[in-house]
Write a structure and sequence with these properties.
Layout: E1 9-14, H1 20-33, E2 38-42, H2 48-58, H3 67-91, E3 95-99, H4 102-112, H5 117-128, E4 135-140, H6 143-153, H7 164-180, E5 185-189, H8 194-212
Parallel strand pairs: 1-3, 1-4, 2-3, 4-5
Helix pairs in contact: 1-8, 2-3, 3-5, 4-5, 4-7
This protein binds P1-(5'-adenosyl)P5-(5'-thymidyl)pentaphosphate.
P1-(5'-adenosyl)P5-(5'-thymidyl)pentaphosphate is lined by residues 14, 16-22, 43-44, 74, 99-100, 104-105, 108-109, 149-150, 152-153, 159, 190, 193-194, 197.
């Protein structure tokens, strides 16, 4: 999939309020420093359709969403995102940094909602074919600590209102995925002061850029 001249696909993952948005700024600075053309996007979202689906998924004033419907909506948004944003950029040699991707579906719908990895894997194959991220940075934090950060920012969305067992399953799934794919998935302890977390993220991306040249 990588091919000469093709962009690299980097994703950043983790539980609620873990600091993905904050650390994407670090990724952006390092890519700029190395003169690498890149795009930054997010899931669910990244397209007009994806952002509309995101709104449906995160709002709290609708009837409860069936877990399978939630899973399918994640992949509907992803199909549009891949076809119109991610794939064209990678094909043009642009690197893509995505705030969450399919590891989040394994963690939240497979683990948190207990739909299991098999259902996610089937849709992953259908929607993505062979496409997988080249590097995934998983920011790891105790769910209570992450939620406390999210709470400081304001009102909680539909996922953030879940119970602590849900987030424990999300975290365990991310950790299991990192164990299964240690080369691609790199865990960073995000419970530390921001400067330390950012230094680790910068070192990881610098190392990855070095190996990709
Ligand atoms: N979802 C998504 C699924 O269920 N399945 C899927 O397939 C996908 C793709 C929305 C939701 O969608 C779900 C998961 C999510 O619940 P989201 O908006 O990406 O996805 O998720 P959130 O976790 O809600 O994203 P947030 O924007 O809320 O959190 P971030 O980006 O992780 O955190 P950030 O950077 O905004 O930081 C939060 C606060 O903490 C501070 C920051 O300054 C900020 O105030 N902070 C720190 N403070 C102290 N020390 C540090 N090290 C800090 N790092 C950050």
């Amino acid at each position: 999939m990588k091919g000469e001249g093709r962009g690299r696909f980097i994703t950043i993952e983790g539980g609620e309020g873990v600091g993905k948005t904050t650390n994407i700024e670090t990724l952006k600075q390092r890519l700029q420093h190395h003169g690498i053309k890149h795009g930054i996007t997010r899931e669910p979202g990244g397209t007009e359709l994806g952002e509309a689906i995101r709104d449906l998924l995160l709002r709290t004033d609708t009837t409860p969403l069936n877990s399978m419907a939630e899973l399918l909506l994640m992949f509907a948004a992803r199909a549009q995102h891949l076809a119109t944003v991610i794939e064209p950029q990678l094909a043009a040699g642009t690197w893509v940094v995505c705030d969450r991707f399919t590891d989040a579906t394994y963690a939240y719908q497979g683990g948190g909602r207990e739909l299991g990895a098999g259902a996610v894997a089937q849709l992953e194959q259908l929607v993505q074919g062979e496409l997988r991220p080249d590097l995934t940075i998983i920011l790891d934090i105790d769910p209570e600590q992450g939620l406390a950060r999210a709470r400081q920012r304001g009102e909680l969305d539909r996922f953030e209102q879940e119970h602590v067992e849900f987030f424990a399953r999300v975290r365990a799934t991310y950790q299991a995925r990192a164990q299964e794919e240690p080369e691609r998935c790199r865990i960073v302890d995000a419970g530390r002061p921001l400067a330390e977390v950012q230094a680790d993220v910068a070192a990881l991306i610098d190392g990855f850029i070095g190996s990709a040249k």
